[in-house]
Amino acid sequence: MENKRCVSVITPAYRCAGTIRAAIDSALQQAEVLEILVINDCSPDSLDEVMQEYQTEERVRYLKNEKNLGAAGSRNRGMQQARGKYIAFLDADDWWEEGKLQKQLALLVFTGAKLSCTARELVTPEGELTGRVIPVSERISYRAILRHNQINCSSVVAEREAALEFPMCHEDAHEDYIMWMRFLKKYGYACGVNEPLLKYRLTATGKSGSKLHSAKMTYRSYRYAGFGRLRSGVYFLSYALHGVAKYAKSML
User: Fold this and answer.
1) Which of 9, 21, 62, 131 lies deepest, with the highest CB count within 10 Å?
2) Which of 111, 116, 182 is closest to 145 using CA atoms?
3) With a threshold of 0.85, does the pTM exceed it?
4) pLDDT tens per residue, range 171-200
5) Do 137 and 166 touch, CB atoms closer than 8 A?
6) Which residue, among 15, 250, 11, 6, has the nearest Cα to 136 in the 3D structure?
7) Which of 71-85, 107-121, 148-162, 212-226 has the lowest average pLDDT?
8) Contacts (Cβ under 8 Å, ≥6 apart) of 37
9) Signed CA dihedral, 136, 141, 144, 216: sign only
10) How many angstroms separate the CA atoms of 8 and 37, rounded?
11) What are phi and psi for residue 88, nearest 5 degrees?
């Protein structure tokens, strides 16, 4: 890479004062990080106090929304203000392994893809590793993403100019999944690093905490992506079967 620091990390922040340090610190240890945009989405906790610890860190940019925009709106704001050639998403309760971005950037250059993701290890709400790993394919096609979403948002690195074409929307669905479907429809495929370089914290209070609620959101995602009811139902059935198999394998 001509400029080693070429990645803008986007972190929406809401009720995360107890977890965001791990996210920020894991991003700071990545040599490729140009900046970390932490977007305070009107968080009612002590987030301001935590962020004071990073006020002398030149790579951390702390932005505050005037009104609550939700995760999708906050990520969109981050993409608009990012200065890097690449953007990476990192939720405030997740963290990365050292060397994550280096491996993804090398793969993006090698393959010519515009989006990359990684496998992830599930972590308890308290931050303890479970050893349960959710893998990814080395190549994820548009057809594959319709039947099974392997792409976790906190693992994504993408070319900023391409990502800006597909802003996240529809908070009542999986806004990131809609983005991946639209992205791959145009650009064909994503490349995956099948290593658990993302530590993904399980939580019962997130949007996907309830399996039934998450299932309804998945169906809505297909509808928002432009598919009719029948086709959405077919894709949803495939998605559900993959989901059962995925978590069964992660328990082995």
Assistant:
1) 9
2) 182
3) yes
4) 899 999 999 999 999 999 999 999 999 999
5) no
6) 250
7) 212-226
8) 8, 9, 10, 11, 61, 63, 78, 81, 82
9) positive
10) 7
11) -135, 135
Dist CA 126 CA 42 (whole Å): 24
**Residue 174, token pair as written in the block:** 């999986």
Total residue count of the chain as it appears in this document: 252
